[in-house]
Design brief:
Helix 3 links the parallel strand 4 and strand 5. The protein is built from eleven helices and nine strands. The chain has 249 residues and is of the alpha+beta class. Helix 3 runs antiparallel to helix 7. The strands form two sheets. A five-stranded mixed β-sheet has the order 5-4-6-3-7, sandwiched between helices. The chain has a four-stranded antiparallel β-sheet with strand order 1-8-2-9.
Length: 249
């Protein structure tokens, strides 16, 4: 964000950094709405997985569990922490959040049975699914890269507040690999960067490598990314207040 806007410094990062900006966390020295968005390479859903050892079978089991359902996440205030709190609020899930894990640590805890559930990308969960260690229960966002046969959280939510909250988690899935430069890149140079980015993600060699690695590829133009980010930033006061409270727990 602080780099010279000459188009020579660009970066890619998680769309989850939108949460601290929305709630106005101390130390946020950037404005995603002002960034020079270049493009987005991938979209994939955020997927709620449960351990095969947990005995959990349906969404109803998560709404009215017979015993506490422990779900692993990153640190308090991280994008993963917000995503799980949002999912629980929007769908009425009864979850005991266990924060402070990296993604790999969380998956290990899930496989060992230390926790019952985890929420992360479809790509991260796929090896565990193929080994029969976890079951996919729910998916959020991801555009056209949704997993067939897995319920969609967007189809289950019934309240306006719940839909507004879920739209933020869906954005993380839709903008899985965004790229941007600092504010103020001259329009002609930004247009050139966007064309170069679009050409790169459409390159046959690049596409073949993505397919070989079984990675998602769903390019978006920089203008589309900018519009999606701005829409996510424009949250009503009740949603902002809820996020501020949720991020402190």
């Amino acid at each position: 964000f602080a780099a010279t806007p000459d188009g020579l410094t660009i970066g890619t990062f998680t769309a989850g950094v939108i949460y601290p900006q929305i709630v106005g966390e101390a130390g946020v020295r950037f404005d995603l709405g002002a960034m020079s968005w270049i493009g987005n390479a991938a979209s994939e859903p955020r997927v709620l997985a449960v351990s095969r050892r947990s005995g959990l079978q349906t969404i109803a089991d998560l709404q009215r569990p017979s015993s506490p359902v422990r779900i692993v996440t990153g640190a308090v205030g991280s994008s993963g922490f917000y995503a799980i709190r949002i999912l629980a609020e929007a769908l009425g899930l009864s979850l005991e959040v266990v924060p402070g894990f990296t993604e790999n640590e969380g998956q290990l805890a899930l496989v060992r049975g230390d926790v019952s559930a985890n929420l992360t990308s479809l790509t991260a969960h796929r090896p565990l699914v193929e080994q029969g260690l976890v079951r996919l229960m729910l998916q959020v966002g991801g555009g056209s890269h949704r997993e067939t046969g897995i319920p969609s959280a967007e189809d289950l939510v019934t309240t306006p507040k719940g839909r507004a909250l879920l739209s933020l988690v869906a954005l993380q899935g839709l903008l899985a690999r965004p790229t941007a430069g600092p504010p103020g890149i001259p329009s002609g140079r930004l247009a050139l960067l966007r064309r170069a980015y679009a050409a790169a993600v459409a390159d046959p060699g690049f596409m073949a490598e993505v397919q070989r690695l079984q990675l998602p590829l769903a390019p978006l133009d920089g203008a589309e990314v900018a519009a999606l980010v701005q829409r996510a930033l424009d949250q009503p006061p009740d949603v902002v207040a809820w996020l501020r409270e949720a991020g402190r727990r």
